[in-house]
Amino acid sequence: MTSEDRNVERGIALLRDAIANPEDYPDRFVCIPLDPDLIPKILSRERIRLMREVLEVGEFDSVQELAVRLGRDPTRVGRDLKDLEIRGLLSLEREGKRKRIKARPVPIILGG
């Protein structure tokens, strides 16, 4: 068994426990019911990379800062951020023209 397989198994076990005992995880997870057909559209490889970066760093002062870090176009990063915020996966705080990007609890995406 590879380390990736072990990580997947641990993740599944954690997910099962969070579903069975949500009161034990009040600030760690966001559960979002989604149509399974939408999941690949909402969580593209670039969006997952973006979310991973925000979760690891915790906060970015601007879309530009995050875009540079990811090596992506700021306009596209901004669009991805807006969609992820609407779905409750990230937090954007507006400060004038700037948007501060903050991580939310680790999301769990559930098919509908």
Could you characterize what this model shows?
With 112 residues, this protein is α+β, with helices and mostly antiparallel strands. It has a single domain (29-111), classed as Arc Repressor Mutant, subunit A. It is 50% helix and 23% strand. It contains 5 helices and 5 strands; from the N terminus they run H-E-H-H-E-H-H-E-E-E. The chain has helices spanning 3-20, 39-42, 45-57, 63-70, 74-86, and strands at residues 29-34, 59-60, 90-95, 98-103, 106-111. Strands 2-4-3 form a 3-stranded antiparallel beta sheet. It has a two-stranded parallel sheet with strand order 1-5. The longest helix is centred in the first third of the chain and has 18 residues, at 3-20. The protein is globular, with a radius of gyration of 15 Å. The mean pLDDT is 82.
Topology record:
Layout lengths: L2 H18 L8 E6 L4 H4 L2 H13 L1 E2 L2 H8 L3 H13 L3 E6 L2 E6 L2 E6 L1
Parallel strand pairs: 1-5
Antiparallel strand pairs: 2-4, 3-4
Helix pairs in contact: 4-5
Number of domains: 1
User: Quick one: overall form?
Assistant: globular
Strand order of the largest sheet: 2-4-3
CATH superfamily: Winged helix-like DNA-binding domain superfamily/Winged helix DNA-binding domain
Helix and strand run: HEHHEHHEEE
Mean pLDDT: 82
Q: Uncertain spans, ≥5 residues at pLDDT below 50? A: none
Q: What's the level 1 CATH class? A: Mainly Alpha
Strand segment count = 5
**Number of distinct helices:** 5
What is the correct CATH architecture? Orthogonal Bundle
